[in-house]
Amino acid sequence: MSREQAAAAVAEATAERDSIQANLLDLDGSFGKRMLAGATLTGESKLRWDAAAAGLATLWEIFNAYAAVVDQAAELMAGARRPSDRELAQLTAWLTGASVELNRQQPLGRRGLTETGKSDLTLAAAVQEMKRAFASVADVVAAAESVWNETAEGLGEIGTQLTAAKEQLGDLSDDEVTDALAAAEAELGQLRGLLNSDPLALWHGGGVDTTRLERLRKQAAAVAARAADIARLRADAQQRIAVAAAAVAAVRAAREDAASARERAEAKIAAAGLPPPADAAGLEARLAALDKLRAAGRWARLSAELDTIEAESATATQRCQEAQRAAEALLGRRDELRGLLGAYQAKAARLGAAENTELSTLYSQAQDLLWTAPCDLDASAAAVTRYQRAIGGLGGGQPR
User: Fold this and answer.
1) In 3D, which of 215, 202, 205, 212 has the Cα closest to residue 145?
2) How far, in Å, CA of 220 to CA of 227, rounded?
3) pLDDT digits over 309-353, tens only?
4) Which among 231, 299, 354, 367 has most CB atoms closer than 10 A?
5) How many CB atoms neighbour CB 238 within 10 A?
6) Other Cβ atoms closer than 10 A to 357
């Protein structure tokens, strides 16, 4: 190399060494590397980190040997005002020749008889080996760090949520919620253990597998919601029971009204065929059992029973009201036919047919049907229709 070529090559090698050193220090001090190096690893993480740790050790070994050559070249270049031919030859040998000396002694069982364990690399070859080793180690470190970043915070939030749910439950004895809480806490412990000992078990297909985390998040949310419901129920149990009692009382009152309307309709309308109103006996029995559930602290069962009673009471009340309206509609239909008959009679009188024998007979038939109890609505409606048609067929309205 000429003096100018040597100076440029030394400057380039020095800059490259500084860049490599900075990246190695970043890798060595990274969160992922520190976590992997400080953890008691198992499974996939142990296998991959053992290989990566060996690769990192080799990487530093190559770098130290490589950096020593670059430092020698830089010192020689800096110390000589004008390098001699011998010094330029030495610089050329360092910068382009196999100047990076490594001792790679294999274990005895894998060592050949003539092997010395020593190998010499050029600076360029050393850089290429370091690039490959760096990429391999960085992949493992980055994967583990990604798992921690995407999982640890979620697990912390879930832990806080479960702790709050446990505090809300306090001394409440509810097997269903207690078992669900214990199951969620057990899964949380397993995921935390996996994150600490084998984070790479959660690294699949180049990304973090959050399936278990998301399933646990939903599980914890359900437990927390149920615990909150039970805590609220304990505080408002008496009020909720009173609301349920009022709902059952509303069913009872609606049933009485429907039964009364049905009795009136059946007494006055023939073949009414009305549906019976809903029975509240089952609701009464469930309502009577609520105090026992509260006394036993069976809050989940109490909550479910209250929800059921309120829902079934609303349905039963609606059915009773519908039965009452159906009965009243029959009586209303009879009254409507009576009104129509009176209106047609008045019309016949206006037409001068008040004394018409045929009309009087038809009127009497319809009247007898409508004012006979029980009333046959179908026959009455047909009689009124016949009377209406007879009036409509009077022509000029002249009586016979």
Assistant:
1) 202
2) 10
3) 999 999 999 999 998 998 899 899 999 999 999 999 999 888 888
4) 299
5) 10
6) 10
